[in-house]
Write a structure and sequence with these properties.
Radius of gyration: 17 Å
Mean pLDDT: 92
Number of strands: 3
Strand content: 5-15%
Structural class: mainly alpha
Shape: globular
Strand order of the largest sheet: 1-3-2
Order of helices and strands: EEEHHHHH
């Protein structure tokens, strides 16, 4: 399991959100503390952050120790690596769709209903412009 920190709180989330992941930090509403599906969903986002940026941040940090005189060149790459996943998530709808499909599939694997998760994925809140049926088909591709 990748390093992460889970905090149970109702703060820092839109009303329609039950939980959210910010890099390695997972915020979950207290009423969902025992919901394995939401934990699986958000932990998937943590894995995605590590996959798309966290690993690069680690490599850049190591590079700073190996090449300390190159700090002015390396630091911008560090900032970019930390922001890569969130930036791609916000700016590229197809990336956001795949990230959420993978996370909702993890939620289904943890016991959630696929039709409910497809409906949530197709929600206008994500601005993906897909139907429940299209969302369900995409979730099936990610199911284990």
């Amino acid at each position: 399991m990748l390093p992460h920190l889970t905090i149970y709180t109702d703060r820092f989330m839109a009303d329609w959100v039950g939980a959210r992941a910010i890099m390695f930090l997972v915020l979950i509403r207290p009423k969902y503390k025992d919901d394995k599906g939401i934990h699986a969903h958000e932990y998937t986002h943590v894995k995605q952050w590590y996959r798309w940026g966290g690993l690069w941040a680690l490599l850049v940090t190591i590079a700073l120790f190996i090449f300390p005189d190159s700090v002015q060149v390396i630091v911008p790459f560090y900032a970019l690596s930390i922001c890569l996943f969130p930036l791609m998530y916000v700016v590229i709808p197809s990336f956001r769709l795949e990230a959420e499909a993978e996370a909702y599939a993890a939620q289904v694997n943890a016991g959630a209903d696929i039709n409910d998760m497809a409906h949530r994925l197709a929600s206008p809140n994500y601005k993906l412009d897909i139907s429940d049926e299209e969302a369900a088909m995409l979730l099936l591709e990610y199911l284990e």
